[in-house]
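Key idea: predict the complex, not the pieces.
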Amino acid sequence: MRPEELRGRQAAGAVPPEELDRLVQREFAVIGARLRRVDGVAKVTGRAVYTDDLTFPGMLHGKILRSPHPHARIVSIDASEALALPGVHAVVTGRDMPVPYGIIPWTRDEYPLCVDRVRYIGDGVAAVAAVDEETANRALGLIRVEYEPLHAFLEPEEALDPPAGAEPIHAPTKPGRNGNVTKHVHLEFGDVDAELAASDVVVEGEYFFEGTTHTAIEPHCAIGYYDPTGKLTVWSATQVPHYLQRELARVLDLDVARVRVVQPAVGGAFGGKSEPFDLEFCVAKLAMATGRPVKILYTREEVFYAHRGRHPMKMRHRLGASADGRLRAVDAQTLIDGGAYASFGLVTTYYSGQLLTAPYRFGSYRFDSTRVYTNKPACGPKRGHGSVQPRFALEVQLDKLAERLGVDPIELRRRNFLGADTRTINELRVQSNGFLMCLEAVERASGWKERFRRLPYGRGLGVAGSCYISGTNYPIYPNAMPQSAAQIQLERSGRVTVFTGASEIGQGSDSVPAYIVAEELGVPLDYVRVVSADTDLVPVDLGAYSSRETLMMGNAVLDAARKLRKRVVASMARVWEIPPERVALVGGWALDRTDPERRVPISEAFNIAEAEHGALGATGSYDTPKDVHGAYRGGTIGASPAYSFTAHVAEVEVEPETGVVRVERIWVAHDCGRALNPVLVEGQIEGSTYMGFAEALMEAQVFKGPEQGRAGLHNAPSLLDYRIPTSVDTPELHALIVESVDPEGPYGAKEAGEGPLHSSIPAIANAIFDAVGVRLDALPFSPPAVWRALQDPAARARWEATHGARRAEVAAD
Amino acid sequence: MIPPRFDYVAPASLDEAIAILHAEGEEAKVLSGGQSLLPLLKLRLAAPRVLVDINRIPGLDRLDEADGALRIGALVRESDVEASTTIHAHYPLLADTAAVVADPLVRNRATICGNIAHADPANDHPATLLALRAVVVARGPAGERTIPIDDFFTGLFATALRPDEIVTEIRVPAPPPRSGGAYLKLERKVGDFATAAVAAQLTLADDGTIARAGIGLTNVGPTPIRARQAEARLTGQRPDDAVLADAARLAAADAQPVADRRGSADYKRDLVRVLAFRALRRAVERAGG
Amino acid sequence: MSTHSIRVTVNGEARTAEVEARLLLVHLVREQLRLTGTHIGCDTSHCGACTVLLDGRPVKSCTVLAVQADGREVVTVEGLARDGVLHPVQEGFHEEHGLQCGFCTPGMMLTAVALLARTPNPSEAEIRSAISGNLCRCTGYVNIVKAIQYAAHRLSEQAAASPPAVQAEAAVAAGGD
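Result:
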């Protein structure tokens, strides 16, 4: 087809010609605009397909038998009665898949199903495939398992120092080591003891962060199918299709080229679906055993056992400062309760210290973190992995320091600002840094100067700051390949298809590539289709964890889009006989910037370019900087292409008589680099802040102790007792976007999904102190806990003193 | 999650329903709103052989005043009570209570009669109906009988109902002029059972003293509790803060809380005191005191 | 165990089904009628992901037996759009970014439809109260509230623009009595 035959084939949704003039003047036509999600219509019409919505002819239902013991040896398993039950097609046990796995290649310490030892109540022991759920459940009841109970470790202190004769939870990695320790990290930067000794003020505190879990509304679900050619397909509600594909192949001893993982729509994840789970291996193995598709859907109770949520941490912090408030020393000691398996625990242990060194400059820093195993469901990465807990401790410490020094806590944070284009004390490279703008934004929006320490008894304001990574510079398994890749195909209709391995879990990673392509190639948003997270179709992206998608996938898509843009622009420049710089691709058109009357529909431009260059497709990739971290062991962990920054001010009302804390509103300013779509960024900030609020006041993943009987049993595996806030419980949230364009991000973008959770929690703790004069150093701030703290007769006097001091200061002004 | 197998019948009349209950004995369960029963079935905490659905029986959904009492039929939903102008005007204690039972979706199905027949001490209406001195109307093979609310709750999840009886109605005596009530519940989040809750209902005499007091406590004992000491302390007294505070302390003494996920026993007891004081104050205000 | 023949109007269409007594309404909708926009999130009647309208009232379909819907009218998320045009509530959730993962969205929208049928101009407090039986884990509810406000505005515009007969029909479509 010749170009002239295409004249007038304008894309539906193209910008009207009279608006083009204005559009070509702008820096961006699409980026930064308030746009809708690309998956919105499917989700509001009920047409989005989640894993459990899929069904296949002949599909069987799987169920997993779970351990009733927190720690026991498996003596024998007899599945013969279960197998004899009509309707049962297969039973598998640990011995059918005796290959250890683990998301971190150095700590592969679990099996798809337990082989000879169970390590928590809920650990998987056997799996059944049957014609329906009820038959599968009945079959579970017919499997005879003989256990020999072992000493169960429920408290991390006991695991660290086991009683004589008690078998550790895992075999020691080296003789003489305690098999209950996953990882110990001790790092010191500068001379902490000397700096503490030379400090004018030293603040000490002990903090406890209770475990919490993700509680995505969609329970985990997976379907396996092994086709007659010997190819395995697993559909799964995962946020890491690539890792799942690798682990399935390795554990099941299949050629990875014959394993396909498809991620349907995912109903929330938050880190809770970021490693392989027993159900994925079981549906695969059961499908291989039966030749039929097999589905397993977790019950809500099983989701609580699968867990991999926030680690409980016991933290002892010392903070030394000069009289003017400069931080001379931070000394942190942390005991991390890991649960039964390592999961991401090696990283968690490092993160509990490594990610604390911004946005404030430390004169010296030491952290000593130990993660131990306990006989409870394994902890792992929950939104803000590893750093939410120490951030709580540090930001409360800073509030105590400000109080001691009589300095406004926002001013104290300003004085210690790390700065931009710098290195932290542990040598993380920070480029853009909008933290001061964040502080200013929440200070202004909250009326801080007029209201802090001036509200009546029972009402208070608190501030906190934080930072977070935008992906990690090093992938989970060592390799020299790009962390993210994308492929783009331009079609003659003017449509563009983007293939990306990025994992959409609600955060918008199917929408971001569409915005980037629309910006670079000038097509209307409706003309971009995004194909994602199907390992047969898309290039590799490592998945939705560590807040990496926008930065890494965005850069990969941008790389591919710019290659194609160059070709289209070159062709139009040749046709119009103008320099390429004058060609704009925007709003559904290709046009001459200096003469917008000279234009063709974008489809025509694509056709001209295809005629000249051949088929229009390109790949793009992004890899992280590899030379920007400390040379010490562990220096790579915490190294990220770019860091986001956040500041929170929370306003609370505390009812002293009942201990009820009502968080009235939270102002949260977040430096996301550049907001590619502010609507999505605000959604991430609000959701993240909400989740922090929830952890502060309500959430607790807790277990029965020996005094309650059934020691180690989850105390509340339901949405009744594991409390997540409703619309009525949730405070007013004011998301304020701060932009500090980062040289590493696509258009300067950084993360927004995880950072804004961190400072939510200490801001609330600090606001409670402002309201009623008590420090709550243990989470959550439930009514009985707050009530208990307020039984302290000195609390009211403390409140009077702080508020009196402030009044005196005002009088002196 | 699928419930265990059972038979289902939806009789068209009360007599038919009662006949089935009579024949099945303990094996049968009445299904009205189902908002407690169906979750119990799914979790395999109950396994009746037959469910007798009374939702298709005509005449059980009356919500009106007659013969000096409010009549709440077996099929009146919480959301009906919430929406009723009569109840808002004359029975604010009931309106308060219906508004905090579970969540709005559950309230579209859940019934008041079911709330008491289930006899969960964590349920909200038992305390309220104790404070209001309600009467439970039950029908069985021998016909209808009335059970004073004070005699209705006999233990944990146990009532004076016989297996072949159905609660057909609750009667709440119409409060005299200058009456008011309030229900105050502390819950960990919306949709939760009470950590503790207090129902208070007061009637003032012409001289402004308290002529009659009713106080019920939720989820601080094996059964819903009527705070008799507190009621006695109020009767004949002027409702000033000192008297209300005294009564609130006595209500706390009447509570029998145990430590659980919602708090320690001492916390809950003190909470009863705080909530009782507030509920009494609001009741006085509403009574025009 | 008894089985029952039931007739249910689902999204305006008469459907018949043979159901076991114990079959939950959510399973009828998802598995037999293959309307998978209604989701299952908890097992214990707390999350609200399975919300449908039963005779116009939002209920948790995991806590109603399918046989109880015999002779009644059920509206699921698939029944909200008419002739390819989104219902104002759907439009609101799309325009105001009232969703992220989308899992709670169908239930949330059906609750909103029922609210607006009863209370055309709800306050923010009324909206928050009405949706307090539907849990969302992504949004912090900010944009869900905005989405429902958007829909309220659109519905009142439509009501002002259309004759009474059409309004009545719209009310039925919106799950009104």
